[in-house]
């Protein structure tokens, strides 16, 4: 370590040092903007739904396919993408590759709209989807690598906030951009040019990925992260069989909860126009409130969960609140801002509490694959549900669609309650407060030290007083039991020193 960058006590004094809080803040800023372009371009069809129907002459089922085709490749590929990060690419190369694929898909989609070829639109969204979800897996790995420990919930919330801000900005600016482009182009060409402009946000995210990759490479050398992980066994595909029951219940929530969020937003503009008689810009504004509130509140919810713990409790509360939000939108004519704002609050709370749970129950060497599986099953649900949603809207209307969303949310609620029961029955840590986790950490250290002491004593042939076989087995069993409670995954990451 360079003496000019650290004091004699090991505390970094230069902001250029990877452990310095200014340096880490800049890395966090780049992580936040990595997904900005992806989320911005993902919802461009939703922000321009009327224009797709008017300029490109798409019906609701064809329009829904633009979202569905994004999700289909990720039923498999985001899982494979996570595996490739863990086993071959590494997080730096993986991020650049997936971001490049995503940018290519955005350009192809815009080109398809510009020449009014539906097959090319579908191909572009397909390629865009290949990169989009795999990129999210890579970003999750970056967040855990740099901020694992007491900051993790807050950082996940902040990263989600900036990502969702991309979707919010999309709903705010796409209509004005479209009308500005209409001064120079007509028909489907003006829609295509509008999408070309939107795709430039993906290019900006790619540049952020390149800069962050250089910073992470430098941090690995200075902090000697590669040496610290050299003794860890490589991930093997069969290790998936060892994932805990709680992890698979989390995957169920990823499917059942998010299919009641993203398909609703994709079709929300037309919903607000028809039920509440809003004009297109008003419908876009109220539809964007889910993402806007998520962007504004996620960092604060992350800090709240960092301070209070109780992740599972917050997840259950957020699902219940989401059920109430959809109930208001489906069965009442209360101002839709009430239901949508409640939906945005509950959505941001769930995301801040749910995703860090994966890092608590899965070893770091398997995180890419674990997050990839979550994304894969989530996209399987989204790919099928959004096609079904388009058919339901065309044949039965939005009320039946809301009934379906409510059913999915009740499944998510059951899975969350089961997580609480299973984790509590196994004396787990997922719903503990930070103080309780620290106490459990201390107890684990003391138990391990006692077990090691007994090992040394039992190997000394001259020692007169030896513990009985039953006592020794009891202590070792207790040690093994406690060590298996995910402790190593909730303690601060020793690869990066704490902030000064």
From TrEMBL:
Gene3D superfamilies: MFS general substrate transporter like domains (1.20.1250.20). InterPro entries: MFS, MFS_dom, MFS_trans_sf, MFSD1. Its main location: membrane. It is a multi-pass membrane protein. GO terms for molecular function: transmembrane transporter activity. GO terms for cellular component: lysosomal membrane. Residues 452-469 have a biased composition (Basic and acidic residues). It catalyses: L-histidyl-L-alpha-amino acid(out) = L-histidyl-L-alpha-amino acid(in); L-lysyl-L-alpha-amino acid(out) = L-lysyl-L-alpha-amino acid(in); L-histidyl-glycine(out) = L-histidyl-glycine(in); L-alpha-aminoacyl-L-arginine(out) = L-alpha-aminoacyl-L-arginine(in). It comes from the Eukaryota. It is found in: Lysosome membrane. Residues 24-427 form the Major facilitator superfamily (MFS) profile domain. Keywords: Lysosome, Membrane, Transmembrane, Transmembrane helix, Transport. Homodimer. Interacts with lysosomal protein GLMP (via lumenal domain); the interaction starts while both proteins are still in the endoplasmic reticulum and is required for stabilization of MFSD1 in lysosomes but has no direct effect on its targeting to lysosomes or transporter activity. Belongs to the major facilitator superfamily. Lysosomal dipeptide uniporter that selectively exports lysine, arginine or histidine-containing dipeptides with a net positive charge from the lysosome lumen into the cytosol. Could play a role in a specific type of protein O-glycosylation indirectly regulating macrophages migration and tissue invasion. Also essential for liver homeostasis. This is Lysosomal dipeptide transporter MFSD1. It comes from Pieris brassicae.
